[in-house]
Amino acid sequence: MKNHPRLLFWIILLIGAFAVIIDLPITKPVHIETPKIPGINRKISFNLPIYGSTIDFYFNNQHIFWQFPFKKGLDLAGGTSVTLRANMQKIPKDQRQDALNGAKLVLDNRVNLLGVSEPTIQTAQVGSDYRLIVDLPGINVSQAVSLIGTTAQLSFWEQGASGSGALRNPNTLPIGVPQILGVDAKETNLTGKDLKSASVVFDPNTGKPQIQLVFTSSGTDKFADITKNNVGKPVVIVLDNQVISYPTVNEPILTGNAVIQGQFTTDQANTLAIALQGGSLPVPLTILAQDSIGATLGQSSLTKSLLAGVLGFAIIVIFMIVLYGIRGIMASGALLIYTILVLAIFKIIPVTLTLAGIAGFILSIGMAVDANILIFERMKEELRAGKDYSSAIELGFSRAWSSIRDSNISTLITSFILFKFGTGIVRGFALTLAIGVIISMFSAITITRTFLRVFHKK
Question: CA separation (Å) from 372 to 13, 335, 364, 376, 414?
């Protein structure tokens, strides 16, 4: 593109315009429709984003849409932070750390199935206490507790005379089982570990939510044997030591599908399905502390952070213009496009924004300016040495590149280490900084140079 700077210039502007569409929420929809295209039944049309940055496309009577909202972390969107203690009394000492890591994995699976934007789950040991700290953006306290406090130990019980399984002391049977099956109730070998998936369905007759269970191949065989041995009898489904359903088997079920019925609300059924799908906890957890962070506090923090970013950007632009004149204006234009591109990338990936992440982004803006300063100072040296302006542009960029490359690579290595070994907000800071640094190299080497090539006076 060296010989076609104007073409590259227009490509950069086109990319910038697309990034603006993604970045800026528009309060009123703007409808645009193309002329009818031969061979297509309907014109191509789209609406520019309404609030929340949604782009709607209509093509040949097909409605397609993409959503590009900012994902906010706990400190910006509000949510719940819960500290849990793992009960390790029955776990050997040499296996406790593995059990804690297993509990973390199960909780991570559950909150991911719930669709939380970016949960943060950390393990900690305080003396002899093993703890989990869970941050859930956008989730209220009751929803968080019902999700992460459920052990999700699933078991199936039958009458003792009808199947295999070890006879249990009636005092240790799950609540409700003796009343349904007698004291000779037996636990089958079918457990939550044989579960392939769990999802919410609705009874076609009553419309009430139910949980649809699908078992693995081995679980299907176990469930088939249980239903064969209990035709006309109840099979009790127990979750976390309490009966939640006891359907009567009408005929053998060979497909590996079962339905849990109960007096569930839709939210309760969804939480239960997620808990079962995510797996059972290897250790019981009790809640030590729970904190609710309001969205109002998060919005206040976001407003202050954005104000700081805008103020810092304005100061940088003034500094560049005062110091470098027309070149400073071009660099400021490149910096503006850089900012627009990075914000668009944050939405597209998407990156969950926290206060620390915003700090990383603002820091990367300073690094982008630093690259321009190195280039312009090299250009000054070439001009003082008698080079013409075109040569000074090319030499300034080529000779400053090694310094820019090395400093940015060092920052990227640091960001990788922080992201790999850090947790929570540290990872968010590292990710936004790394994205900003990568785009800043493109901004300094490509955008600024293109502007100078197009608008320079020899």
Answer: 19, 9, 13, 6, 22
Considering the domain boundaries, does residue 117 fall inside one?
yes
Mean pLDDT of 363-384: 89
Q: Would the pTM count as exceeding 0.70?
A: no
pLDDT interval class at 164 (50, 70, 90): very low
Does 279 map to a domain?
no
Structure tokens at 368: 């982008």
DSSP summary character for residue 386: T
- Count of CA atoms in the C-beta half-sphere (13 A) of 342: 29
Sheet holding 257-260, edge to edge: 195-202, 209-215, 257-260
Cβ–Cβ under 8 Å, residues 141 and 321: no
For the chain, how far is it from start to end, CA to CA, in angstroms? 20
Nearest residue to 360 via CA among 429, 296, 286: 429
Q: Is residue 283 part of a domain?
A: no
* Strands 352-353 vs 71-72: parallel, antiparallel or unpaired: parallel
Q: Are strands 186-191 and 242-245 parallel, antiparallel or unpaired?
A: unpaired
Same domain, 93 and 211: no
Average pLDDT, the chain: 80
Q: Is 119 helix (H, G, I), strand (E, B) or coil?
A: coil
Same domain, 64 and 84: no
Q: Within this chain, do residues 50 and 113 fall inside the same structural domain, yes or no?
A: no
Interatomic CA distance for residues 110 and 151, integer angstroms: 11
pLDDT in tens, 181-228: 877 788 888 888 888 888 888 888 888 888 888 999 999 999 999 999
Distance from C-alpha of 228 to C-alpha of 250, rounded to nearest angstrom: 10
Domain, as residue range, for 187: 155-264
Check whether 235 has a pLDDT greater than 70.
yes
User: Which of 19, 49, 69 is the endpoint of a domain?
Assistant: 69
pLDDT, tens digit, 9 for 90 and up, residues 42-53: 444 444 444 344
What is the torsion angle, in degrees rounded to the nearest 10, for the CA atoms of residue 394, residue 400, residue 405 and residue 408?
-120
Show Cβ contacts of residue 412 under 8 Å, excluding neighbours closer than 6 positions: 434, 437, 438
